[in-house]
Amino acid sequence: MAIVSQHERCAKELRQCVNKEKALILQRFFKTGKGEYGEGDRFLGVIVPQQRRIAQMYREMPIGQVKKLLQSKVHEYRMTALLILLYQFKKANEPERKKIFEFYCKNIQWINNWDLVDITCRDIVGAYLFDTDRAVLYTLAQSKNVWERRIAMVSTWYFISRKQYNDTLNIAKILLKDEHDLIHKAVGWMLREVGKRSLSTEEEFLKKYSCVMPRTMLRYAIERFPENKRKKYLTR
């Protein structure tokens, strides 16, 4: 009898949760049509809590098999692979964390939708870089690849949670003139996260740059402000 690998068993578990109606909704929601940012992405319709449960079941999967799961056209396979990495990273020692971080960076081409980025990069990329050189984020921020730019921005969320804001603000400056809506949202979101912890820091940035920020970026950044203050920023 042939031995079934862990990644094959994991994929089977995911297929058992297929919801065709949900899959159609997700394919529209994640813009999988021709010319859209998620073009060609395939969905099974498996919700994230189910993926988290299955990822926990396979959290000891060897990284070579995680790679096979990650390099799939099926969105839920990729997400589950990334969740496995996330669970492994949180329990890993320093050499293991380095290995997972490097694997993540080498496979960014498969981390190619905003949910894949947002759920995993903070606590892998951000967590790993917290105590080391963060230059890679500035390289990613200047990439032609939208997902690399979004990883650069959202990974700083980890620093924000530790009350370090400089990298967030510096990368936000790099991305001020970005043309992609998903980057506008990410930058505004991270500025809002800064404001939750240091409103004065966020407002100092906004006083300098709100006039040149894309509208969506600004709206996300000031979402939690009182209505009268939001109106002042939006009418400048």
How would a textbook summarize the main sheet? none
Report the total helices: 15
Helix-strand makeup class: mainly alpha
Tell how many strands the DSSP assignment holds: 0
| Range of helix content | 55-70%
Low-confidence stretches: none
Distance N terminus to C terminus?
Answer: 71 Å
Mean pLDDT: 95
Beta-strand content bin: under 5%
What would you report as the Rg, rounded to the nearest angstrom?
19 Å
What is the H/E order? HHHHHHHHHHHHHHH
Shape: globular
What would your notes on this structure say?
This protein has helices spanning 6-15, 20-29, 48-57, 63-70, 75-91, 94-106, 114-129, 135-141, 146-154, 157-161, 166-174, 181-197, 199-209, 215-221, 227-234. By secondary structure, the protein is mainly alpha-helical. The radius of gyration is 19 Å and the shape is globular. The chain starts with 5 loop residues before the first helix and ends with a helix.
Put the structure in a nutshell.
This protein is an all-alpha fold and 236 residues long.
Write the layout of secondary structure elements.
Elements: H1 6-15, H2 20-29, H3 48-57, H4 63-70, H5 75-91, H6 94-106, H7 114-129, H8 135-141, H9 146-154, H10 157-161, H11 166-174, H12 181-197, H13 199-209, H14 215-221, H15 227-234
Helix pairs in contact: 1-4, 3-5, 4-5, 5-6, 5-7, 7-9, 8-9, 9-12, 12-13, 12-14
